[in-house]
Amino acid sequence: MRLSNEDVQVQLSRRRPGQSDLTTPRDEKDKVSIQSGVEKGVTLGTPISMLVKNQDQRPKDYTDETLDLYPRPSHADWTYLDKYGVKASSGGGRSSARETIGRVAAGAVAEKYLSEAFGVEIVAFVSSVGAVHIPRFPGEKLASESSASKATSSTDAAIGSHAGAVDNTLDLSGLDEEEIQEPLSKEFRNLLDRVTRQEVDKDDVRCPHPLAAERMRQRILLAKSKNDSIGGTVTCVIRRVPSGLGEPCFDKLEAKLAHAMLSIPATKAFEIGSGFRGTEVPGSKHNDAFVEKNGKLGTETNWSGGIQGGISNGEDIYFRIGFKSPATISQDQKTVSYTGKAGVLATRGRHDPCVVPRAVPIVESMAALVLIDALLAQDARHLAATRLDRRNVLDLPKSMRLEEKVKQEASK
Question: Which N-terminal residues, if any, form the signal peptide (predicted)?
C-alpha cells in the first residue's frame, strides 16, 4: 500500500493541541516521521514505526509541591500510585491524552487501507457540549444550558410532588400512548447519512450544526473563563461497512467498539444505534424491516446501528461516546493529601477546558483500528474456507445453506 507522512499527518494535525482558543495553548505541531516499514512510499509488509517529538513540554508546571502532596480530584494520580507504587513526576504519564498520538497515527494507516480496499468512510463530530446539543429526537429544539437547567428543575419538582403519594391502584390505560415512536429524528438521521469531515472541520468546535456549534463555543469559553471545564459527546458514523464483521458472544463488533472507545482518556459512556432512547420504543416500531437493496438484503430503518447479533449487517454503523469534564482545572478544589490530611489544590499549566473538539480524530482512529481487525479476521475465515471441499456441506438440509435459500426464492 502506498503510504507517506502526509497520509498520517492529516489526522495528527486535527488532534494536536493549540488549534484554537477552545483548546490547551500548548503549541505542539506533532509532525510525524515514518521510521520503518515503508520504502519509496510503499509499505514493505514489515512493522511500521513512526516518531512524533514533543517540542513544547513544560515539566515545571508540575513542580509545585502541592501536586506531590495532593492527588488531583477525579484524575488518575491516586489510582496509578496505588496500583504501581510510583508515578510519573510530570503530567499523567500513561493516563495522559498525549498517548493518543500513537492511536491516531496507527488509525490513519488503518483508515487508508479501509478506504482503498473497501471504500469505508469514517466521520465523527461533536454532538454536544454540556447541555448544549444538536437536536437528535423528533420535535426536539436546540437546547441551551439555561433551558436544560429549567427542564431538570421542573422534572425534579414533578418527581418530588409524587414522592410522598401512595397509590395502591394499578391503572394501565394509556400506558403506551406516550411511548416514543422513533428514537432519532429524520433530520439527525439525514445528518448521519451525509455529514463529511470537511463540514465538521468548518468550525473549531467540530460540530456540523452551525447554531449548535456557536452555542457550544460559548459554553466552552464560559468554562475556560471560570478556570473550569465541561464535558460533551462525540457521535461517529462508519459508512459502507461490509457485512459479516464481528464474532458471536464475547467479541461482538459493538463490544469491540465499546472496548476501544472507552479506552480513550476521559470517556464515561457509549451507546450504539438507537441506544438508551431505543429502550423506550416498542419492538413493533424499533425492529428494522428487511428490504432488498442492490440485490442483497438490507434494512428499511437502521435502529440497530448496523450491527445485529454482534455482526455487521452492511448498514452504516453509528454510535455516541460521552466524555467527562477534564479533571485538571485551575479552581481551588477541596481534597486530601496522600496521607489523608485535608487541603486545597488548584493546578497550574495548560489544559483543555473541553476535550471533545480534539477527541473527534481519536474516535475515528479507534473505529478504524477495530474495523480493520474485524475485516482481516473475516478475510482469513473466507480464505480458510476456500481450502476445503465445498461438497462437505452438500448433504446438509437445504434450509441450512444460504445459496439454496437464494435459489429457492429465485425459482418462485
Answer: none
